[in-house]
Amino acid sequence: MTDIEFRSDVTVELVRASAADSDVLFAARVSTLGEQTLGDAAAGVEASDRDRGLINYLMRDRHGSPFEHNSMTFYVQAPIFVFREFMRHRIASYNEESGRYRELRPVFYVPAPERKLVQVGKPGAYDFVDGTPEQTAIVDEATREASAHAFAAYQRMLDAGVAREVARIVLPLNTYSSMYVTMNARSLMNFLSLRTKVEGSHFPSFPQREIEMCAEKMEELWATLMPMTHAAFAAAGRVAP
């Protein structure tokens, strides 16, 4: 039987980007200056206080469209249940690997020991706290056992000549998949506002930890591309314009 791999992390890579603070300035200033070249929008030169002020103004007053004239494509590896949450955000383009056309790998998510396990409160006003050692042990054991059993059933069907699209139905939601996701900065800010829990946000969010792990990595990559926009987003309480 193929060796099974268990992971407790996610992978996020920036594979393609056309995104800079100058794109925001370029798009915003057409309103008052008319047609420009990208060079006129401070591309490739140090930003001025006027540039920062304009981006802060656009963010604060929620003039959102100038933040749409850019693009980032991320490669993400995560368990399937995370992708189902991603695709609730109908503000991006997704292409995921297909269990119809390829044999899925035996890679499964198991929560790390530090993953909080117990929900307290009620929906809309709840938090998660650490589990007991016994709870941590049963989650780990049950997840590994169920994953191994499911993959053995999947492999038996494939070995018997059953089509991949049928055999895959027994695989659990903690099976790792991969996808490309493409979005602009405005869409990403909307995603981050909902899928990260950050002190000081105007609107508190309560994301599932696994999608938050993806969001944190995406935000870190975006911040290097558009540092003024990212700083303005944080200063405005992480509200998408």
UniProtKB/TrEMBL annotation:
The active site is at R195 (involved in ionization of n3 of dump, leading to its activation). It is an enzyme of class 2 (transferase). One of its GO terms (biological process) is dTMP biosynthetic process. It comes from Microbacterium schleiferi. FAD binds at S65, R88, H89, R90, E96, N184, A185, R186, N190. DUMP binds at E85, F86, M87, R88, E96, E97, S98, G99, R100, R168, R195. One of its GO terms (molecular function) is flavin adenine dinucleotide binding. Catalyzes the reductive methylation of 2'-deoxyuridine-5'-monophosphate (dUMP) to 2'-deoxythymidine-5'-monophosphate (dTMP) while utilizing 5,10-methylenetetrahydrofolate (mTHF) as the methyl donor, and NADPH and FADH(2) as the reductant. Its EC number is 2.1.1.148. Belongs to the thymidylate synthase ThyX family. Pathway: Pyrimidine metabolism; dTTP biosynthesis. Pfam families: Thy1. PROSITE patterns: THYX (PS51331). Binds 4 FAD per tetramer. Each FAD binding site is formed by three monomers. Homotetramer. Keywords: FAD, Flavoprotein, Methyltransferase, NADP, Nucleotide biosynthesis, Transferase. This is Flavin-dependent thymidylate synthase. Its cofactor is FAD. It catalyses: dUMP + (6R)-5,10-methylene-5,6,7,8-tetrahydrofolate + NADPH + H(+) = dTMP + (6S)-5,6,7,8-tetrahydrofolate + NADP(+). CDD domains: ThyX. Signal peptide: none annotated.
